[in-house]
Write a structure and sequence with these properties.
By secondary structure, the chain is mainly alpha-helical. The protein contains 5 helices and no strands.
């Protein structure tokens, strides 16, 4: 091979290495930015949980004191046993678990059957029915709260 051909081959190889290095750097910067945004969002979403736990450990009367103290100075661990024994907590827990288990099993059963029907079966009006199902899924939960309550009340 002549010197010119060798120079062209070397130049092309160098250009490929540079472009792949640029792509790798861009990908790394993109991932870094993505992780940074996700970390900020995670912190924003975890702040209310941290505030709730912090407030639950404060002495009565200091919950709403300003400025907010994230670490309560006298930690009141007795708030938890008091909360559980003050009211019929076991009844509330049982009612919640009953409603959640019923709603979850009903949703899982009907959603699985509907998903199978839409994925595997071909029938007239399938597209229209699927559009209706998607529209009802887009409704906020607050809109369906009262009808859901009435249904569960009628079911006992």
């Amino acid at each position: 091979m002549s010197e010119i051909a060798q120079d062209i081959v070397v130049t092309r190889a160098t250009a490929r290495l540079r472009s792949s290095a640029i792509v790798a750097v861009r990908r790394a910067v993109g991932q870094l930015l993505l992780y940074l945004v996700l970390t900020v969002l995670a912190v924003i979403l975890l702040v209310p949980l941290a505030y709730m736990v912090s407030t639950s450990l404060k002495v009565r009367g200091t919950e709403l004191a300003l400025p907010v103290r994230w670490l309560p100075s006298p930690v009141a661990w007795e708030n938890y046993p008091e909360t559980i024994t003050m009211r019929p907590f076991h009844l509330y827990l049982r009612n919640t678990l009953t409603v959640v288990a019923g709603a979850m099993s009903g949703t899982l059963l009907t959603s699985s059957m509907a998903a199978y029907a839409f994925a595997r079966l071909r029938f007239p009006g399938r597209s229209l029915l699927f559009s209706l199902v998607l529209m009802t899924m887009m409704l906020p939960g607050v809109v369906t709260m009262v009808p859901t309550f009435i249904i569960f009340k009628l079911l006992g």
